[in-house]
Amino acid sequence: MGANSGPGASPCASPVGPWRKVLYARQPFPDNHVDRRFLEELRRNIRVRQYRYWAVVRETGLVAQQVSCVAVFITLWSCMDQGRLGPSVLLWAATGCALPGYGLYEMLGGKDRERPRLADLQSAAVFLAFTFGFSPVLKTLTESVSTDTVYAMSAVMLLAHLLSFPYTQPSPPGSLSLNAALFASVCLASRLPGALHTFAMLSWALLVFALWPCLLHRLRERAEWSFPWAAGLVCAGGVGGLGAVWPGGALLLSLALLVLTLACPLLLVCLQRHKDNIHGPWDEAEIREDLSRFLS
Amino acid sequence: MVLKIFFPTCCNTADSGLLIGRWIPGQDSAVVLAVIHYPFIPGQVKKYLSETQNQSQVDLAVLGSWSLPKDGQEGMDSFLKDLSTIFPNSRWLQLSREIGKRGFACQVVHNRITPPDPAQGGTDKKDQIIFIHYDQRKVMLSQLHPIHEESPGEESSELRAVFHTVAQSGPLFLLDRYDEGPLKLTHWQSEGREASIVVELSKQASVPLCIVLTWLVLLSFQLFLYVVCCRILNIWPVQFISSKMSTCVQTAYRTNHFQTVFSTKKATSHMEFMRKANIFVSFLVDMSLGLLLVSWLYRENHISQLANTLVPVADHVAKELQELLEWLMGAPAGLKMNRALDQVLGRFFLYHIHLWISYIRLMSPFIEMILWYVGLSACLGLTFALSVLSDIVALLTFHIYCFYVYGARLYCLKVYGLSSLWRLFCGKKWNVLRQRVDSCSYDLDQLFIGTLLFTILLFLLPTTALYYLVFTLLRLVVVMFQGVIHLAIDLINSFPLFAMGLRLCRSYRLAEGVKFRVLCEEPGTPLHLMMEINPLKCSSVLQRYRTPTYSCYPRDSWVDLCKKLFMGELIYPWKHKTTKTD
Amino acid sequence: MAEKNEFTDINGKAILLDCQNYSSFCREFTVSSPKVSLCKVIVCTCSVWLFAYAVFFVTENTAVLSSAIIITLVGMMMHIHLVKVEHETLLIIGSLGVQLSTSYASGRESTTFIEMSRIKDIVINEAVYMQSIIYYLCILIKDSGDPNGIASVVPLFQSSKPRLNCLVQVYKSCQAIIAQTR
Fold first, then answer.
1. What is the value of ipTM here, to two decimals?
2. I need a surface site. Which of B139, B237, C72, C156 has the fewest CB within 10 A?
3. CA end-to-end span of chain A, whole Å?
4. CATH value at residue B39
5. Where would you find the membrane-spanning parts of this chain (chain A) (predicted)?
6. Reported pTM
7. d(CA A183, CA B58)
């Protein structure tokens, strides 16, 4: 605006010469001077991508299955709390899920292993030992805290888990999300009637929140085709399981999943058309060079 | 420039004669110290002045003449003028006083040799003279504050120079003690001569006596010190315990004082002298108070009464503690505590109290005897009795101390654990090398176990915090009581009784400065001022002459204390944790 | 030789400047504030006693009354001894020094003498006081290490706070004496 009219106009005629866009030379122009080529460099929407609807739907599967995971966990807990499922059944089921899962993980992993098998075994032993040893303590932990407080705390923590989950890079799981989920599961597990119940609950928490994302990530990497099926399976499991315990909740969950997988991508694709970004010489500098050789 | 003449009040009515004094170098002022009366022989005066100068290190001179006309002394003026030729000086003062007038007349005769100015004479200079009268005795004895010990020779301040001159010219006043010299002088000593002789003689007699006494005391004392310090105190546990017991600390402190007071070296500076005197007086007061206490204690069986009240009180405290613990083991104030941990802690502490009660039962028959012997320590001074009392209180409340330590350790562990696990919870860690919080990616099992522990610690925190809070409050009550006792000890130890007494009875001895009063304003005479001594304020006496003591106050500020209490660090007396700085 | 002038202080209350001329290089200025007004004392005492009586009426405890009497007496004594300044005096003696003294209503007097060799100058300065700017007279003390530096500033007439016209009169006399004897 001020470039063409005010301060810039008169010195142009002077014998000093034209204005140059450099900082190293002393020029008889004010610091904020620009010439008429200023707006020629304006660019719009350089980096805006046009999404395709079904691709976005496919990607939302990850979010939907994570929400369903939480639902599955809550289902398991309420089943145990009401006494429909015994701890031993759950423990067997956990073993039954974990061993094929591990096998699948190893099979998809290929030859380049980062961790030796012994380390995995050691980790598993540590999990089992600590959980089993602490389960009596955990059982009495929240005895004097009122049930509502415990429920509220678990709800907040599970929400925090969903919000802070690293959806772009789910393996290894992010600290805050995993910790929040584990805290919630400890809170919930301490409401259960027996020490073995607590143990079973915690092992399932480990399966659902820590190990399943790793497996899913590997599935996505190595066998692209299987990812929608796995996500759909988990979603169906979540809705079905919740339906058995609390039909209203199942309805709500399925609605939420539908909105998440179908309506949200639609909204994104529609709104993408209205996007209007401008770029120009006023942007801060961007370093395009490949810096990896400095970092090694 | 204005000529200032400092004139002693005692010479106001002196007979005519010569003024002896000093010209202050660099300033236009003269200090008159004494008047030499007629008749005198000028040669003798000169000899006398040089002798005195050697003794006092003050360059004395004949300043001028003084005339107070009396009957039968006519025609003095011409004689006085002639005197200036006998005592060569650049300036010659001619002071004269007339009967019936309060003011002096003064003429300054400049020596003819130096300035060949014909318009000399007193007439035009008459207004430019100030007479400042001072009380010679008070100025001589007083000590100006703030004290500069280093360079008494070259003061920039005029008043300091005057004070210094008067104080140093003591030999001038002492020399005519027996009134036998060839010269007759007038100054402050010339009036109250007999009394000062008595004082002088007693001083001289007391010196050898003091020396003998000091040697005797010192010899026995050194022996005792050698045995105690070298043999016993250097063993580690004894040393450690003795640094914690206020009786031992007080003993060391008094020993130190004893050495200071009875050292054979003479106190050279004013501060050193005041320090010795303060210590000595406070020592005497302490002893006399202690003896009073002893005389009260051992009369009418007060000791057994004390013992008979002490044991039930200790018993009662233990009972109260037991009830408190039982209350804590229930649901105190409706708080939600972890029941299992609560029971464990409560039983642990109850067992301690049980031990304590049986210990007191065991001790109770001997308590009277212990008190009887301990009471004897009051002979050494009230401070000793008080520090023994403080130690007894510390011993009798040992169970509270133990509870406090257990509670604090447990709480500290929890707080530190929680703070580091919270970092793990957020996916961060403390970088020791850079002293900051960095982000870090943990392994799955680390995360799992950390969260498990975090949850457990978080839910158990209220229980430990409550126990910690209650025992800390108890401990603080005890510490406060001990603190009051220590404050009393410190007050007796450090209060500058001698300086305070000087300030109250001889207020001119400690001078903060001077103040002037306009004496008379007769037209035609120079201005007359009265210089009085402005005594030091009581608060500054306290601040300046307070004997430094071992600090019994908490070294950290209140904010630090609160922070420590919150973090569960031990506050007193095991607080010597050196902080690492890099 | 003595002259008395009426001035006002910064709050508009009347103060008296008494200028005593002892000689050409020795002058004394006394600023006297008005005396404690009896009306104010009576009002204060009465209000405290009425309050005490009201408390006594509710609690029926005679200790309240006696403590009220003690409080008023002690308060009055403290006020007279520590707070209420009757007059402030500045005695300037050429080539010797400056003496400041403050006498309180109880007769207590606190005096400070500053030697001429330590004085750099006497000036009128400005200060922000609550919401306004006031003038005050002050003595600049030399720094012993640095010949041009100022170690500290001693304000004069601190409790009476006269207005500028009064200060100017004192200032001129002081400067005359300092210039004459230096």
1. 0.81
2. B237
3. 47
4. 3.40.140
5. 198-215, 227-246, 252-271
6. 0.71
7. 89
